[in-house]
Amino acid sequence: MSKPPTSSSAPQQNKPSSASSTRVFYFRTTFRNAIYEALKRRGWKETDGDNWDLHWTEREWMSEVFDSIHLSPTQRVNHFRNQRELCRKDLMVKNLKRHKRQLQKEQNAEADAYSFWPLTYVLPGDYALFVEEYKRYPTSFWIMKPVGRAQGKGIFLFKQLKEIAKWKSDSRYNAENKDAETYVVQRYISNPYLVAGRKFDIRLYALVTSYNPLTVWLHRSGFCRFSSTRYSNDAKTMQDTTMHLTNVAIQKKSETYDSETGGKWSLRDLKLYLMSRYGVAVTDRLFYDMEMTILRCLFSVQNIMMNDKHCFELYGFDLIFDDSFKVYVIEVNASPSMSANTKEDMDLKVGLLSNAFDIVDLEGKLQGNETRVGGFDLVHKGIPIKPNSTSQYTTNLGCDIPDDIVRSTEKSVGSTTNGGTPKADDEKGKRDRSGSKVGITGRPAFGAGGRSDSRSGRKTST
C-alpha cells in the first residue's frame, strides 16, 4: 500500500489542464439553497438531462435509480448506496455495537473508546429489554426518536413508563406490524455542558471520498446550535422542546428565538471560549475527542459500505458533550441541511461546499498528495494523518481557515496552520494559550444575567 501523505508542507495549487479550463461542467440538483449557490459560483451549468458531471441528489434517488443506470468514469454523485447504515439512528447504533464487539473479540484496547453514544434500544423490537433497563434506573430521563424523521419531528422526552402509554397502545407498537414505525429510545443526557445556561449541540462536517481506503476530510469550521430557553432537568420541563431540542426547526417556534444570530455560535468561538476558561490542553483534548468520535463512527461502517468510485458523501455529525467534557454522538446526517438562516451561515455552507467540490476535483486541478484543501484537512487515508508538525494542537477543528487553497506534500518549508509565518503562528498560539487576549465574536444574544460556567458554577458578566 502506498504511503499516505503527511501534513508537513507548504501551500500549492496546481494549474488546470487546458482541457479542464475550457470545458463546461454540468450539474443536476433539485435543491435551491447553498448547494445551488456554490455550484453556480463555480461557473457550472445546470441541466435536467443525464449529461451531468455532478448530481447532488436526494437519498431516495440512490435506492430507486442509481443501480439501474450506467455512469461514465467522470460522473460523481453525493451519496454512497447504503449510506443509511450510518445515518439511520437505529442502524448507526447497531453498527457501533457490532464494531465494539468485534474489537473486544480481538482483545483490542480500542474497544474501550466505543462508549460515545447514549444507552439505546430499538422499539418496538427491544421493548422488553428496555423495560428491564428502565426498572434498574427508574429516576433516569429517556428520549424517544423516530428513526426515519428529521428536524426534531416526533421526538419526545419522558420519565415514567405511563407517559408512553399512548405510543405503546398505537398500532405501531406491534413488532409484527410491517408498517410499525421504528423508534429508538435513549437514556437522556441530562447533564449537558451549558453556556449562558443554555443547552447546545455541535454540527461538524466530514467529507468521505472513499471507503477503500477510508479517506476522510474534516472541515475546520462548524457551529453550535443553542436552545432559546435556559436549561433545567426538572421533570416538569420535559415537554418544553425549545429547552431540550436544539433543532432550528424547533427553536424557530420559540418567542425568544433570535433570528439575527439564528441561535448559533461558530466552532471557533466555542474553542476560544473554552480555552479562555480551561486552557489549551483541556480544550484541545475535547476537540480531539470530537474528531476521534467522527472517525470511530466511520470505522464502524467501513467494511459494510458499498464503495464506488462515483460516490462521495458530505456528512453532518451532531455531537454534544456533558459537564465532564465527555463527547457523545447524537446522530449522523447524510443530507445535512444546506439552508441558511443568517449571512454567516450561508457563507460557511457555501465555503465548505466549494471546498468539497475542490476535493472531488472534477476539473482535475489536484495532484493527489494534498493534505488540506480550503477548510478541509485530510485526517485519514488508510491510516491517521496527523496535523502539521509545527502545530500546537492535536486537531485542526476550530482553527482558522488559511487564505490559500491547497497544502500538499511537495514542499515543507514555512508551512503554518493559518498561512502566515511560523513565528506569527507561535505568537498567536501564545495569546490563545494564555486566555488573556482571547475574544469571542458573534456570540448569540444570551440576554441579561451573565454566562453560567457549568463546570465551576461561577457566573461571569456579559
From TrEMBL:
Ranges of Polar residues composition bias in the record: 411-420
Superkingdom, natural source: Eukaryota
Pfam family of the protein (one): TTL
Region described as Disordered: spans on this chain: 1-21, 409-462
GO cellular component, one term: ciliary basal body
Keywords, in A-Z order: ATP-binding, Ligase, Nucleotide-binding
Gene Ontology terms: biological process: microtubule cytoskeleton organization
Parts forming coiled coils: none
Range of residues in the leader sequence: none
A single MF term (Gene Ontology): tubulin binding
Biased composition (Basic and acidic residues): 423-435
Alphabetized Gene3D superfamilies for the sequence: ATP-grasp fold, B domain
Record-linked InterPro entries: TTL/TTLL_fam
Family indicated by similarity: Belongs to the tubulin--tyrosine ligase family.
Name of this chain's protein: Tubulin--tyrosine ligase-like protein 9
Native source organism of the sequence: Triparma laevis f. longispina
